[in-house]
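Illustration: Adenylyl-sulfate kinase.
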Amino acid sequence: MGKSTNITWHDQTVTKQQRRENNKHHSCVLWFTGLSGSGKSTVANAVAKRLFDDRINSYVLDGDNIRFGINKDLGFSEEDRKENIRRIGEVSKLFVDSGQVVLTAFISPFREDRDKVRELLNEDEFIEIYIKCSLEACEARDPKGLYEKARQGIIKDFTGISSPYEEPNNPEIVVDTEENSIEECVELIVNYLKDKNFYIAE
Ligand SMILES: Nc1ncnc2c1ncn2[C@@H]1O[C@H](COP(=O)(O)OS(=O)(=O)O)[C@@H](OP(=O)(O)O)[C@H]1O
Ligand SMILES: Nc1ncnc2c1ncn2[C@@H]1O[C@H](COP(=O)(O)OP(=O)(O)O)[C@@H](O)[C@H]1O
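Result:
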């Protein structure tokens, strides 16, 4: 229980199942995790475009964007990162309940926090996608110039440099953005969804 007392859960009249049947597809979280610059946003948005073209309702939640709004009170300490992921987990569950596919692009560096999100959902609703890319390659890409600032000590607690990243032990999907093109990464993910019949309401 949280801080609130005297609260009661209300079931909705329209169920998740009915929403899925209306949408004609399953709903789930595609949870992208990886270092800054590994390609989470790029691949998540490319998958979302493909899902859109295939008439699947989806929405991308992106670390940077979320920190402009709902999570603007959080920084990058371990405690704040944990709270960041906890909130996104809860928001993702609402998206799944609404019958949509939600793609989350957060570093989400701690295994325990990702596993807690997994536990919030049914087994077939949480798909962890490890966006694999070496620190060296991410640093060479440095699309926002953040690694350079982290190396100079201008940014503290930077993932991979001065803050840890824990690789997933058993992710549903691994895409290596040093080995595979963006299009190949999208194909791998969409083929996984098709193999698991996600394009069909169940
Ligand atoms: N200290 C530090 N460490 C890591 N990243 C930093 C930091 N400061 C700012 N940024 C920018 O914030 C983006 C990561 O936010 P996330 O919400 O995904 O991080 S976390 O999951 O809570 O660890 C991250 O976005 P991506 O590069 O898309 O991963 C950075 O642009
Ligand atoms: N195969 C690939 N998949 C994804 N991004 C790639 C790939 N190859 C090169 N890139 C580049 O790497 C950078 C990844 O940045 P971004 O998607 O913002 O990463 P993240 O969201 O993980 O911080 C982009 O500039 C992108 O064009």
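Reading the tokens back as a structure: The chain is about 40% helix and 15% strand.
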